[in-house]
Amino acid sequence: MPVYQTQTRKLLLDYLQSHADESLSAGKISEDLPQISVSAVYRNLAALERDGAVCAVSRTGSRERLYRFAAAEQCKSHLHLSCTKCGRTFHMNTEQTEDLVQTVAAQDRFMVDRSETVLYGICEACQKKHV
Question: What's the predicted TM-score (pTM) here?
Answer without folding.
Answer: 0.67
